[in-house]
Amino acid sequence: xxxxxxxxxxxxxxxxxxxxxxxxxVVSFMKxxxxxxxxxxxxxxxxxxxxxxxGFPTLVHGCYINQxxxxxxxxxxxxxxxxxxxxxxxxxxxxxxxxxxxxDVVGTLNELFITIKKIEVHFVNQNNDVNAxxxxxxxxxxxxxxxxxxxxxLVGVICQQNLPSGKYTQxxxxxxxxxxxxxxxxxxxxxxxxxxxxxSSAGVPSGELRFVHPFNVTAGKTTAVIIDFDxxxxxxxxxxxxxxKPVAKITDQILEKxxxxxxxxxx
Length: 267
Hints:
The protein has two helices and 16 strands. The chain has 267 residues and is mostly beta strands. 20% of the residues are buried.
């Protein structure tokens, strides 16, 4: 008697049944949390929302049922790293002025133009040592030219910037150039402009003006730092020309936020 043979469609059907059974057996023995693809809600008695049942429970309408053992879900999540808190800030205002117009050493000084390209202050937070290692904070960067001799009765505000509150120890000006306008009747010189060299207090050409002056920045307040140049002592005539060797008195004052020093003008 001839045995009946399976048709092609029958072979496919039984093959699918066998494959499903094998997969079910393999997964049943794996204690691995199986999570629904379209929901994060696990309808399992005793399991919290961030847990999944152990084993291979029955999945009905997006929920696992008939399981009581739970473990923490190992879901893929995106972790957002919180930024460190922003330091409380205050405002640093930098201004300059001049106490003298006439310079006998070089004749009559009509103008003294300083072109400033950068101003920085040295931040040490709460360290009281003026030589403490810290970092320079930029208060101004650009190009501003000012005639010091126009600020004999005024305070010229160069810039203001919000900075972390704490202790600061120095102020540093980077100078683009300095120009003297001189009249000397004995030498028949009138309103002649001369480039001048910027030198440090030690007489070394530096291209910057640096002042050691500790001050504090208070959160929510404005700290006004005023450099009062003594042009009479700062402007020098040498065999090689003119130079600016800064002599200045520095003061600071705590003001309300947005307030400016008395008799001040913006440069």
